[in-house]
Amino acid sequence: METSEHVRVYNAKGLGAAVRHFRQEAVFTQAELAAQAGVQRTYVSKLENGDMSEQLDRLIRMLKLMGARITVSKADW
Q: How far is CA 62 from CA 12, 20, 31, 43, 45, in A?
């Protein structure tokens, strides 16, 4: 993990690691985050484990072709 300020995402596993990092930094359990986000806890678990890869991998390939990337950063909201 780069820093808690921003994380570059290159694949589904990287996004999962970022979600886990920021979830833990916010002191949420998976169940708490899921409840507040309106998703199932299993979705959060799969996301953190990089299991939600097909759509994300397609998106990252398209962004790469356009010279762009996903960066996850701590928001001030």
A: 14, 25, 32, 24, 25
**DSSP letters of 18-63?**
HHHHHHHHTT--HHHHHHHHTS-HHHHHHHHTT--HHHHHHHHHHH
The contacts of residue 13 (CB under 8 Å, 6+ apart) are 50, 53
- The residue extents of the domains of the chain are 6-69
The 10s digit of each residue's pLDDT in 62-74 is 999 999 988 998 8
51, two tokens: 């299991």
Spacing of C-alpha 13 from chain mean position: 8
For the segment(s) 6-69, the CATH number from 1.25.40.180, 1.20.210.10, 1.10.260.40, 3.40.50.300 is 1.10.260.40
